[in-house]
Amino acid sequence: MSKKSNNIWSLNSKGEIMNECMYRNNRKRFKADTPFDNSIVPYLIMIFCATVDGFVFYSLFSKISYDSPMMLGVQIAGFLFGFDVVPIFIGIQYKRLRQGLTKDKFILVMALIVCGLAFSMNIALRVTTIDLISPSAVRTVTSYIGTATQETTESGIDPTAIALTIFGMGIPVVTSLGSCLISFITYNPLGIKKQRLAEMIEDTRDEVRRFDAIIDDYDAEPDFAEQLEAEDEAKYEEMKKMHRAMVVGYCDYVRERLKEHLGNPTSNNVLSEEICENILARLDKELACLDGQTSHTVDMSGRDTKYTMMLRGNRATA
User: Fold this and answer.
1) Are 266 and 294 spatial neighbours (Cβ–Cβ below 8 Å)?
2) pLDDT tens track, the chain, 318 positions
3) Cβ(248)–Cβ(290) under 8 Å?
4) Which of 70, 74, 116, 199 has the greatest number of CB atoms lying within 10 Å of its CB?
5) Are 291 and 242 in contact, with CB atoms under 8 Å apart?
6) Element (H, E) at 309
């Protein structure tokens, strides 16, 4: 049974009519009230937050890290795990804890520690590398010879560098809190469990309805089982007769071919004579067992005498 089928009914492999509208009321019952409650919207928001964090971390590590692209990717991935993946898990685990589905706080505490370490590392890196972001003051000086030279003077930390540092420290915190809050609001384990139980109840009701229909059919025809047994017995007897007729036909065919073989003086010898006689005797015994009647029993001594005379005549002719 398909939950997204547009048909009203369908036939299963057993020929039973199945109701395809059974889950439609449940889908309407658990339908999202707002677009933000849809299952795809929270994932899009979380991906957006992770993308923003990725650009922020790239601007940091591209200045302080080595030129290796692999090292740069590993550093960014590590910070994305601490600032985006772990907060989502924190929101999910805290929602489970609030709804009473779990009482284990150890995992939640460890996730908070990992997230705190990521925040601390980001702050430390931003503060220690603020000089790399601050532009150096350059003054042009003209010498007496007429050539222009540049003289670099240190004038402290530029306000732009301070602003960028604060931005680099604050944006990951905002996106992490947003991902955690969204996962906490949108994830509803009790609602999911309730929906699954409702579907299981509908399945059980449908099974009960089908069993009641089967019982009603049996009650409507009390001798239905006896009729089935009689039909099965009749079909069994018919199949037995058919197989017996097939075996008898094959045996008759083999007997006729053996007779033709024995009647041809050029196609047998002393060795094949005994083999053919044994085969004919075996066929007669099998036919007698299949027929089960004395009228079909063959006189083996007369048949052996007939075949012996036929073989002698064949040898004399040869």
Assistant:
1) no
2) 555 556 666 777 766 777 777 767 777 777 777 776 777 888 888 899 999 999 999 988 888 887 788 888 999 999 999 999 999 999 999 999 998 888 888 989 999 999 999 999 999 998 888 887 665 544 444 444 445 444 444 545 678 888 888 998 999 999 999 999 998 988 888 888 888 898 888 888 888 988 888 888 778 877 877 888 899 999 999 998 898 888 878 877 877 777 776 666 665 555 566 777 777 777 777 777 766 643 443 444 444 444 444 444 444 443
3) yes
4) 199
5) no
6) helix 300-317
Q: Which amino acid makes up residue 21?
A: C
Contacts of 247 (CB under 8 A, 6+ apart): 286, 290
Q: What single string gives the DSSP state of each residue in 282-303? A: HHHHHHHHHH-SGGG---HHHH
Task: Report d(CA 88, CA 119) in Å as an integer.
Answer: 15
Q: At what angle do helices 224-263 and 300-317 cross, to 10 degrees?
A: 30
Q: How far is CA 160 from the centre of its chain?
A: 54
- Per the listing, tokens 């083996």 go with 300
Distance separating alpha carbons of residues 227 and 295, to the nearest angstrom = 35
